[in-house]
Amino acid sequence: MLGSFRLARYRFDLEAVEPLQLPPYKGSTLRGGFGYAFKKMVCGQGREAWRACTPCKRGNDCPYGYIFETSVPKDSAVLSNLQDVPIPFVIEPPADRRTTFNAGDRLAFEVVLVGKAINYLPYFLLAFQELGRMGIGKSQGRYVLQRIMAVHPWESTQEIVYDGVDVRVGGRDLSVSYAAIADRALALPAEHLALHFLTPTRIKHADRFTTQPDFHVLVRALLRRISSLSYFHCGELFDADFRGLIEAAQAVRTAHQAVEWVDWDRYSTRQQKRMNLGGFVGESAYEGDLIPFQPLLALGELTHVGKATVFGHGQYRIADF
Fold first, then answer.
1. pLDDT, tens digit, for every residue of 253-265?
2. Is domain 179-319 given the CATH code 3.60.20.10 in the classification?
């Protein structure tokens, strides 16, 4: 079904060497600074040329082009008309809303890499090192990347990858396959569960962003995201009965819902304008036959769901109720 699907999670630990002034929700700042440092680091063109090179002329052959602007291959057998290919990483910013970090303070966040992007971890290491030298946030404060840990998604297992000086090799592989995720999914409730949406979640249905996530709308969004991640980044077509799953999802009812819309905007340097990326947060509980959706829900807990996931949007946790 998704035999080639694989993902890995890493925790990046930073230490401020100058005061850092960061926004309460740090996903945009981390993603924006990281993208700038990454492009500056890998692009062989002159400064003005690489700043203007969007989309990357080399496409998926360029590390930046693949990681930040994944394009549909010309010989793609399916999804050739897809305009919005999901990029293969998610930044999960810290949950706290602290805005001031003094010299010596620590800041940690996690990065999820999907499929082929796992092999690009050295680029993430180097780009975040470079961003630390350049400075980040309103104060352009500098930091040092102290370490990177590979973290198992649901076990208290971790493995050091970078210790601040050297890259560690030969450690345990803590990446997880779809088969492992499907096995874990069997432990999920079969008839009722609650989803706690931790970060703004942007799911579009019928040409508008939903504010009350019906179960079939959530399933549609998960199918779109996971099938695209699988095809473009894991090299495998998601061979599932999409129509049958959606029809079954329409029979799952909403037991209760306590969600609210949260407005959130960011300034896009590339597009030279402010962008509204608000979404809903809160809890939504569902009842019905949930067994066909257990693997999908478990995988979405790791990949996030909806749009703007690269900033950490669409993160949820599954619980019984």
1. 999 999 999 988 7
2. no
Model pLDDT for residues 99-135, shown as the tens digit of each residue = 999 999 999 999 999 999 999 999 999 999 999 999 9
**279-302 per-position pLDDT tens digit:** 999 999 999 999 999 999 999 999
- Residues 224-273 have pLDDT tens digits of 999 999 999 999 999 899 999 999 999 999 999 999 999 887 666 655 56
CA angle at 120 for the pair 117 and 124, rounded to the nearest 5°:
110
CA 40 to CA 51: how far, in whole Å? Answer: 8
Q: Where are the domains of the chain?
A: 6-177, 179-319
**Strands (DSSP E) found in the chain:** 6-16, 20-21, 89-92, 100-101, 106-114, 143-151, 158-162, 176-177, 192-201, 204-205, 208-209, 253-262, 265-268, 273-276, 279-287, 316-319
Phi, psi of 279 (to 5 degrees): -165, 175
pTM for this model (two decimals) = 0.93
Identity of residue 220: R
Mean pLDDT of 190-211: 95
In terms of phi and psi (left: phi > 0; alpha: psi -120 to 50; beta: otherwise), the region of 272 is: left
Q: Which residues are within 8 A (CB) of 260 and not within 5 positions of it... i.e. 6 or more apart? A: 280, 281, 282
Q: What are phi and psi of 7, to 5 degrees?
A: -145, 160
What are the φ/ψ torsions at residue 201 (nearest 5 degrees)? Answer: -115, 120
The candidate with the shortest Cα–Cα distance to 7, out of 241, 219, 316, 226, is 226
Tell me, yes or no, if the two domains 6-177 and 179-319 fold the same way. Answer: yes
Q: Which CATH architecture has domain 6-177?
A: 2-Layer Sandwich (3.30)
